[in-house]
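Fold it.
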Amino acid sequence: METLKPTPGKFAVNYGVVLGAIMIIISGAMYATDMALEGVQWPMYIYYLIFPTVIIIGISAFKKQNSGILSLGQAMKTGLAIAVISAIVYGFYIIIFNYLIDPAYNEKILQVTEDTLLSNPDIPKDIVVQQMDWARKLSNPILGSVFWIAISMFFGAIYSLISGLIMKNEE
């Protein structure tokens, strides 16, 4: 009986969905506890540690399932796909959240940001107005999701490359 070789896509879907779910849980917790409105960032720092960890674990699991063989290309495919799938899962959540769950939430965040900037006497008012114009443009959930996917791809590529170079073991 012939053994089927694993594909990077299978691992990417599993680990990508898990990583996206972790991000949704973190965002939900920040929303439920008003941490986002208060400017609390430590939950995001946890995600910044979990992101590369899940990518590394996914690539390692692929290598293990592939009889200990891993090329740099396979590592890159697996890691990038994990990053993209997790960002797409989170992007869908952001769109659903902003259009169905709490459509006014972005405006609340923008108002808190503007109040914080205006309370700083070192920042000129015209600079605050410019920054808030950009923040309003970038707060669109669809644009934010696309941006999140791009950022995830960038960091996913970096972590995949590093992991692939370390774990590479070709026939």
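The chain has seven helices and no strands.
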